[in-house]
């Protein structure tokens, strides 16, 4: 499936929900892309998981902000890759720094920058300890093995449950 078809499919999924998050936050390594960027060279051309770009475009189309929360020890490589992939300017907040907290500090910064409440955020990450820590802050947090359309659907379902909303299933 190309980016445009994924985007259309993601827009259909988004259309199923009456209540949507205001901000969707993505981890990088093994969430948006299938590698640890610290093990790669800046000179390489990286690639995202197959559905990642289409999902980002669909969220933007819907007016939902996107952000990055990564504990990568090599933010310079991460940012170079986001730039090469043509997505860097899409993120309203890019928190990329190593930390002993399980991303709670990342989310405090994101909240400070965006002024969006934690309960209006949806978060995707491949590490359970991050998911558990960020969930406690009130963010709907979904464990993934690479983000894809199914994870998006699961995340939005979980988000609407947490918001106590009744959704129209078309
Ligand atoms: Mg990761």
Topology:
Blueprint: H1 3-15, E1 23-26, H2 52-61, E2 65-70, H3 75-84, E3 91-96, H4 104-114, E4 121-125, H5 128-135, E5 140-143, H6 149-162
Parallel strand pairs: 1-2, 1-4, 2-3, 4-5
Helix pairs in contact: 1-2, 1-6
Task: Characterise this structure.
- With 170 residues, the chain is α/β, with parallel strands linked by helices.
- The chain has one domain (3-162): 3-Layer(aba) Sandwich (Rossmann fold), CATH 3.40.50.1000.
- It is built from six helices and five strands, in the order αβαβαβαβαβα.
- It has helices spanning 3-15, 52-61, 75-84, 104-114, 128-135, 149-162, and strands spanning 23-26, 65-70, 91-96, 121-125, 140-143.
- Strands 3-2-1-4-5 form a five-stranded parallel sheet, sandwiched between helices.
- α5 (128-135) links the parallel β4 and β5.
- The longest helix has 14 residues, at 149-162.
- The model has no long low-confidence stretch (mean pLDDT 95).
- Magnesium ion binds next to loops.
Can you tell me the residue ranges where pLDDT is under 50 for at least 5 consecutive residues?
none
- Counted by DSSP, the helix tally is 6
Mean pLDDT: 95
State the separation between the terminal residues, measured CA to CA: 23 Å
User: What is the gyration radius calculated from CA atoms?
Assistant: 15 Å
Strand order, largest beta sheet: 3-2-1-4-5
Q: Sheet bearing the most strands, described?
A: 5 strands, parallel
CATH class: Alpha Beta
What would the principal axes of the Cα set say about the shape?
globular
């Amino acid at each position: 499936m190309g980016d445009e078809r994924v985007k259309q499919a993601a827009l259909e999924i988004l259309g199923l929900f009456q209540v949507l998050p205001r901000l969707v936050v993505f981890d990088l390594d093994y969430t948006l892309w299938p590698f640890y960027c610290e093990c790669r060279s800046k000179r390489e051309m990286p690639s995202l998981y197959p559905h990642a770009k289409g999902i980002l475009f669909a969220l933007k189309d819907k007016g939902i902000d996107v952000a990055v929360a990564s504990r990568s020890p090599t933010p310079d490589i991460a940012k170079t890759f986001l730039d090469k992939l043509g997505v860097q300017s899409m993120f309203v907040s890019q928190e990329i720094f190593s930390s002993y907290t399980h991303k709670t500090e990342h989310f405090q910064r994101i909240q400070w920058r965006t002024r969006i409440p934690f309960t209006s955020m949806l978060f995707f990450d491949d590490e359970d300890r991050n998911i558990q820590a960020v969930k406690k802050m009130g963010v709907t947090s979904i464990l993934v093995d690479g983000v894809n359309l199914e994870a998006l659907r699961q995340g939005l379902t979980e988000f609407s449950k947490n918001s106590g909303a009744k959704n129209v299933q078309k």
